[in-house]
Amino acid sequence: MSSLNRQERHLITIQGLDYFASGLASIFVTIFLFAHSDLRTTILFQLWTYGSLLFFFVLSGYTLRKVSSATHMKVGVAVGAIFYFFLFVFQEKTVQYIVPLAIFHGFGAGIYWAALNLNQYIFSNQTKREQYFGYTGAVVNILSAMSPFLGGLIITIFGTGLYYGVGTGYATLFFLVFLLLVGMVLFIGKLPGHEGPSFSYKHLFTKERSVLWRLVLWEHALIGLYDAALGTVTGILFYLILKQEVLIGSAQAVGFILSSIGGVASAKLLEKQHRYFWVGSVGLALALWIFASMQNPIGLWIFVVVSGFTGPFLNTWLASVWFHSMDAVRDHWRNKYHLMLERDISLGVCRILSLVFLYVYLAHGDQVILAKQWLFVLPVLPLAIGVLLQKSGDTIRRR
């Protein structure tokens, strides 16, 4: 990473720590809610979280003009810390407060990601997007690889009884994540200052969209149709297949390690030939189809290995095309913030629609069986994204 500038390395470290903290507990929050309610309640939590995230992300068009992006990131992480403290306090009663907790959680995530995305765009080198996002993926996945295994181990070790007054493994884990996020608020420190965006909500309706930018919006819309819902469903299915938190954490760890290797490989290969993104598009489709067809430990591990290694090829190029498309708009970054909002509106609305569909769909029979059947629809989406990315790449090369 020596070729990256100081700001790039700092942003990558912040993301790595954030993913490490969320990786410790995120899949176990899903399992915790499922164990104390059902799959639809878990989907409902995600629905309110992503709805809140989208609202506050869009609101950042106003708040970033008044408050620095560094403060946004610190407040967002602090809210995340308080969220995990609430889980520690409420424990099994969490399901009684699921809607306000989800809204609160989404608030923190919304303002954090709005600021982080803006800082990434401002401070990353325009000529080395693939390298930046490739190394980001590698660092994030290295740190993320350790966290789910540690999370599962903590739950297993402290699963029953009391330890220094803290009851149950889940409560112990949630409290440790709270402490980690408090420390992360201090680590963020002082990011380089920059002007606020020159933004009006009218820009969302009056600014002209290029062919390339319309492709970007469709690409992220397709991602939104499966990424959030898939993470929730696979977390539950992993739990039902492996049955032990430490094994679930181990599977997640292997996936992240392979994603880290894939991230480094994709950074190098995509700089030479952009069409390597098809490795990720086809790999994810294949992994999803195999897991949908084989709901057992073998199918699970094939899914983890194939999606883990190939996924970064798609994600790295997707993020690079997004920022290249913004670069293609010949204007100061302050006048382009509406593009970030458009992208996240496209992504967020489709995430909400997919979760609403899944919530309604699961009401018509056995929730787990219906969730397994839903997986068979998903492989077409990474392939469709690949087709759009091919068109985006061709458009970029012609410029």
Query: Going across the major beta sheet, what is the strand order?
Result: 1-2
CATH class: Mainly Alpha
Portion of residues in beta strands equals under 5%
CATH superfamily: MFS general substrate transporter like domains
Task: Map the helices and strands.
Elements: H1 6-35, H2 39-63, H3 69-90, H4 98-123, H5 129-157, E1 162-163, E2 166-167, H6 169-188, H7 203-206, H8 211-224, H9 227-242, H10 245-272, H11 277-293, H12 297-327, H13 337-361, H14 367-374, H15 380-398
Antiparallel strand pairs: 1-2
Helix pairs in contact: 1-2, 1-5, 1-6, 1-9, 2-4, 2-9, 2-13, 3-4, 3-6, 5-6, 5-10, 5-12, 8-12, 8-13, 8-15, 10-12, 11-12, 11-15, 12-15
Commentary on this structure:
The chain crosses the membrane at residues 12-35, 47-64, 71-91, 97-118, 139-164, 170-191, 212-240, 246-264, 276-292, 298-323, 344-362, 368-389. It holds the Pfam family MFS_1. This is Major Facilitator Superfamily transporter. This protein is mainly alpha-helical and 399 residues long. The protein has a single domain (6-189, 202-398), classed as MFS general substrate transporter like domains (Growth Hormone, Chain: A). The protein has helices at residues 6-35, 39-63, 69-90, 98-123, 129-157, 169-188, 203-206, 211-224, 227-242, 245-272, 277-293, 297-327, 337-361, 367-374, 380-398, and strands at 162-163, 166-167. A hairpin with a 2-residue loop joins strand 1 and strand 2 (166-167). Helix 1 (6-35) packs across helix 9 (227-242), helix 2 (39-63) crosses helix 4 and helix 8 runs antiparallel to helix 12. The longest helix has 31 residues, at 297-327. It starts with 5 loop residues before the first helix and ends with a helix. 54% of the residues are buried.
